[in-house]
Amino acid sequence: MATVSPNILVVEDDRETRALIARYLRANACNVTTANDGREMARAMTDHRVDLVILDVMLPDEDGLSLCRKLRAESQMPIIMLTARGEDVDRILGLEMGADDYLAKPFNPRELLARINAVLRRQAAAQTASATNGATALAFVGWRIDSRLRELRNPAGARVAMTSAEFDLLRTFCERPGRILSRDSLLDLTQGRNAGSFERSIDVLVSRIRRKIEPDPLEPTMIKTVRSGGYMFTPEVSPVPASANGSS
Amino acid sequence: MKLLGFLNLKGIGGQIAALVVASIVAIHLILAAIFLIHRPDQLDQPGAHRHSQLAAVVQLLGAAPAAGRPRLFADIARAFPQLDVESLDTKGLDTRGPVPGTDPAAGEADGANLRSLHRRLGSGYRVFSLGPDGTGRKVGIELPDGAMISARMPADSWQRPLWRGPWMTTLLFAVICVTLLGLWAARALTAPLSSIAKAAENFSLDGDAAPLPERGPEEIRSVAKALNRMRERITTLIDDRTKMLAAISHDLRTPITRMRLRSEFIEDDAHRSRMLGDLDQMRSMLESVLSFLRNDRKLESMTLVDVASTLQLVTDQFADMGHKAAYDGPEHAMATVRPDDLHRSITNLVENAVRFGAEATIRLKVSPDTVTIEVEDDGPGISHARKEFMLEPFVRGDDARNMDEAEGFGLGLSIARSIVLAHGGGLSLNDRQPHGLIVRIELPVRQPGRRAVA
Q: Which residue of A109, A144, A163 is in closest CB contact with B453?
């Protein structure tokens, strides 16, 4: 997937941090442009081809949140926000701001890379996947998975806690229902080859997801194991309109 | 001036003085009322009905003509045998006793009896004692026409013991009244003081306690005012410190982010991993400070959560880090909570558990209205005396044991507790047998009546 070097725009006001992020991403096969604030960002976006924007929340003049909102109003450009922990997370991820993902400072650079790859893959998948049609929330047998809020709710409407990796894997399944997915392709789709070993293996993640969503984790009916093939997500998946948010 | 100051009824001194004056006035009023009602000067002394009988009989005799007296004597002897009234001749008197009115044996009480009898009879009669006689005392009475009669005065038994006297009763009554009044007054005066003491005791740094009530005597009001002002100053001071700490923690994130990025370019693997470890420790310390500081802001909204999945998630995360962590409880359990806050508090508890013990067990018990979460470790536990202390912020566990290990600010437990309290639940520390600690969290379930879009 990520064979072509993605073009990343880093908008960050701290010169040192900006340079270090750029250096780290370049070392991991990305083309990086940098910007200090909103104006430089606008200029960079007209001058360069940009596949993804990394946007700091705290910026001089115009803050990252309003830049994010403007950007989202104009395009489907993938956005990853860099934020102070716990601050405005709901707003960043909410429909209002529409960021694709966020990372709290100080962050693990490898995780930033993994998130970049995940967002880009998702973007690519959303353009090709017919079933999901780019919807932010998907529903299956009463369950509801929301990519933007990064949350899973059970048929009773209760939020089910998941790690980032578990969530990405379940979303990958939901975007490809009824297809046999090998462990390798799942690894590609969720973590990327270069993410290294800091995430758990697919089998462990599948068993943890099963424990959370299957009525009987020992006799799984949703995520079925296909002999010598991998896994298949069996339930019917339907997109949830963006307006049907929350409880009724 | 001093006197005026003393008369200031708003002060404690004035109030006490007023109270004393009021109680003295009250006693006097009570005594006066009793006096006016009972008139002890006119009081018929106990046994006085016999006196009046005697007086009536004597007056009857005195008014009767001398010729009719023998018959009258007989009638009186029949009607009032206890008075023992009979005629007395002067000759007998001489032989039977000393000179009338000069009886030295007549006690003071006796004299009073005679005087009282004399007062009843009037000035025409003369009364003198004839000495004791069996159950009473014989008296001689000279009628206005000079005739003498003798009669038996009722015995001394009418003389009540001292403590039953009316003045004693009054005094007793007064003492009881003053005591009760004093107790009431002391309570009324000190109640504001003790409420101040209690409020000062309950004063906590979260700053949402109500200010002290400014009522009662002037001194107490000014104490309350002063304490309230002090509280405001303390709160402002803490707020300033909190802001400063938050700003420092906030600003430290930029250099830590840089270092985190820079460490990726360190060639030496051992060096780099050690650097990452230090940075992780710094990051977790910052996070705990920031989460402690923002805790009362209640940023996160309540939502229905599968608590079991949160506990499983924490267990998995610790297992992934190489710790021995186990989850024991139902697969699913719904409760209305703040999901990220709950996750953080459980994470803090398990962090402590694996730091002090070899393995951690997270248990979940569900009842219709409570969710009970227990985080159990097999470490040394916490002595009973230190349990309450351990819940305070910036208090660490056994310092000596962990000198060289990664350690936080001692905020984990207090953050967990304030999160649980913000949920309307409770957190308690309990002993595990044979050793170890059980941190028990009880959360209200609320009504999981909402349903999502199916």
A: A144
Name the residue of chain B whose CA is nearest to A82's CA: B257
Residues paired with A80 in a beta bridge: A54, A101
**B339 and A158 in contact by Cβ < 8 A?**
no
Rounded-to-integer distance, Cα B144 and Cα B149, Å: 11
Query: Positive or negative, the Cα torsion across B333, B337, B343, B347?
Result: negative
Determine the residue of chain A that is closest to B246 in CA distance: A84
B34 pLDDT more than 80: no
- The answer to whether the predicted template modeling score (pTM) of the entire model surpasses 0.80 is no
Contact with chain B for residue A154, Cβ under 8 A: yes
Of B290, B332, B450, the CB nearest to A157: B450
Rounded to whole angstroms, how far apart are CA atoms B118 and B124? 9
Looking at beta carbons, which residues of chain A come within 8 Å of B445? none
Kind of pairing, strands A143-146 and A151-153? antiparallel
Strands of B13-89, DSSP E: 86-88
pLDDT digits 0-9 by tens, B145-180:
877 888 877 654 445 555 556 667 777 877 788 788
Per-residue pLDDT, B403: 42
Which residue ranges form the domains of chain A, and what is each CATH number? 7-128 (3.40.50.2300), 137-240 (1.10.10.10)
- ipTM metric: 0.71
Give pLDDT, residue B327. 93
- Decide if pLDDT at B404 tops 80: no
How many Cβ atoms sit within 10 Å of the Cβ of residue B272?
Answer: 14
Pairing, β A79-84 against β A52-56? parallel
**Are the C-beta atoms of residues B320 and B305 closer than 8 Å to each other?**
no
**Cα A78 to Cα A98: distance, rounded to the nearest angstrom:** 9
Per-residue model confidence (pLDDT) at position B373: 95
List of domains in chain B: 48-159 (3.30.450), 218-288 (1.10.287), 300-444 (3.30.565.10)
Contact B276, A106 (CB under 8 A): no
What tens digit of pLDDT does each residue of A183-239 get?
888 887 776 554 444 455 888 889 999 999 998 888 888 999 988 778 999 998 888
- Give yes or no for A243 touching B (CB within 8 A): no
Mind listing the pLDDT tens digit for each residue in A111-122? 899 889 888 887
Dihedral (CA of A139, A143, A146, A147) sign = negative
